[in-house]
Amino acid sequence: MDHIQALIDKLEAESRLSREEWITLIEGRSPNLAEYLFEKARKWQHRYYGNNVFARGLIEFTNYCKNDCYYCGIRRSNKEAQRYRLTKEQIMECCQIGYPLGFRTFVLQGGEDGKFSQEELEDIVRTIKDNYPDCAVTLSIGERSYESYLGLFQAGADRYLLRHETAEGNHYSRLHPPGLSAENRKQCLRHLKEIGYQTGTGFMVGSPGQTAAHLAQDMMFIRELEPHMVGIGPFIPHHGTPFAKEAGGTVELTLFLLGLLRVMLPGLLLPATTSLGTIDPKGREKGVQAGANVVMPNLSPTSVRKKYELYDNKICTGEEAAECRDCLEKRLGKIGYRLAVSRGDYKEEKLCTM
Ligand code: SAH
Fold this sequence. Notes:
Elements: H1 2-14, H2 19-27, H3 31-49, E1 52-55, E2 57-62, H4 88-98, E3 105-110, H5 118-131, E4 136-140, H6 146-154, E5 159-161, H7 169-175, H8 182-195, E6 198-205, H9 212-225, E7 229-234, H10 251-264, H11 274-279, H12 283-289, E8 294-295, H13 302-305, H14 321-334, E9 338-340
Parallel strand pairs: 1-8, 1-9, 2-3, 3-4, 4-5, 5-6, 6-7
Helix pairs in contact: 1-2, 1-3, 2-9, 3-10, 6-8
The protein binds S-adenosyl-L-homocysteine.
């Protein structure tokens, strides 16, 4: 216990560990150690962001996807998925609903849908920024060329989410069909950072075949990339995928990794994800108490919510945006946090002035 606890202190002081140390820490974790870690994580969370939790309005604008990731419910080969795409007008309606609810970041997420041209995407970004100049636009639309990322950035996009999914090449191939590679995904992330996006990476916890050694590599990759955001959530099987019968990830390990991320890179924007809320009714609250400081309630029209089914039993697919927002605000209030009306940009400095 003591030598493992010392690794948490070392991580806090030096912001990095060796591969062997990461493995020892992850494999040696215990409930007591987790409490020790979460206390430190909350200390850093408060130094940077106070008790503010930032809300991002998630607009799932298309579930068409050319990719066939083995874990994902909207993979190309899932013929059961009912496909939809929102029009630009529908996307703007989502923003119109979200703004008065206090959302100052809109996240456009979707499958890799070639039907949206570069010009159309730039036009959508530009229109949102023109209408809501005090809001940030985040994109989460997969792997694209440097030129495409640059064009979208110049059109006004502020942030980009692209989870690396797993940093280790063989494990990447266990989760993805040939043609997709960890190397390309990492290259995209480097491009995004270079262009100037606030960049988010991340991975699923407990994906099939994942070991502590893989997680060590994920943590080391994140340390090296120094992203602004890291999204992690448990893997949850989807019945219409090759991983239907695989075990899902756990709340316990997800929380522990959230705590480690906060201590390693204390200024991170770290969401308590919907998947964490799906496997535990208090999952998102526990995530915030382990160091997370972002929530991403759904702003998609209720008519399409169930169709953006990445995994089974996804929560919050029936409620209106206002209900989701109010529900989250109440939940956060109960544990001493507030839902901030703010863009919630990444902070280099640790002084919290909010
Ligand atoms: N097409 C975009 C968005 C992908 S969906 C992109 O490529 O980035 C967003 C994230 O959901 C993925 O990065 C993946 O980590 C997560 N996800 C997909 N299927 C999942 C599942 N079955 N369980 C948990 N998370 C999943």
